[in-house]
Write a structure and sequence with these properties.
One of its GO terms (cellular component) is cytoplasm. It comes from Haemonchus contortus. By secondary structure, the chain is of the alpha+beta class. The chain has three helices and nine strands, in the order H-H-H-E-E-E-E-E-E-E-E-E. It has one domain: Peptide methionine sulfoxide reductase (Metal Binding Protein, Guanine Nucleotide Exchange Factor, Chain A, Beta Complex). About 15% of the residues have low confidence.
């Protein structure tokens, strides 16, 4: 019998990318850092909820815009943070809101970066019911700017029982001071 993660991965592999979030096959696996945070490129820092879609489109890389602003999904095992385990924190690529610490990141084998918990019990994350594509899931979005991050599942490590399955292109990484 296949695990839930394996079933989801098989579903993703069998489903065309045109259906999964309308993301192009040419998505790169670039990683983003603090300089890439979209709202910082707008000059006058404004409330992220007031940024128009045309402004987001100007300041975000195409693949990040497609995933974060249009609820897309990057291909499994293609994201820069899937097998990335440096110390630091992950923030929203659109607005810079703190999302996850590296100490909650683990290898789940599902094809996307996995975290067992968010910073401060979902301080900057909202959960929404997602019944798209014939599945019942819980979508996670940035509470500050409404960017699509990924999904959270109830098959994570014992500590929390949760697995946040997050698109690499929806996040930037801020390395810890050593």
């Amino acid at each position: 019998m296949l695990s839930r993660c394996s079933r989801q991965l098989l579903f993703c592999r069998r489903t065309s990318l045109a259906i999964i979030g309308n993301v192009s096959r040419s998505m790169s696996s670039s990683s983003f850092g603090p300089k890439d945070i979209g709202i910082k490129k707008l000059g006058d820092v404004k409330d992220p909820k007031q940024v128009s879609e045309s402004e987001w489109k100007k300041v975000l890389p195409a693949e990040a815009y497609e995933v974060a602003r249009n609820s897309g999904t990057e291909r499994p095992f293609s994201g820069a943070f899937d097998k990335f385990f440096e110390k630091g924190r992950y923030v929203c690529l659109c607005c810079g809101a703190e999302l996850f610490n590296s100490d909650s990141k683990y290898w789940s084998g599902c094809g996307w970066p996995a975290f067992s918990k968010s910073i401060d019990n979902d301080m900057n994350i909202i959960r929404l019911e997602d019944n798209s594509m014939g599945m019942k899931r819980v979508e996670v979005r940035c509470k500050q700017c409404n960017a699509h991050l990924g999904h959270v599942f109830d098959d994570g490590p014992k500590e929390t029982g949760e697995r946040y399955c997050i698109n690499s292109v929806s996040m930037a990484f801020e390395k810890a001071d050593t």
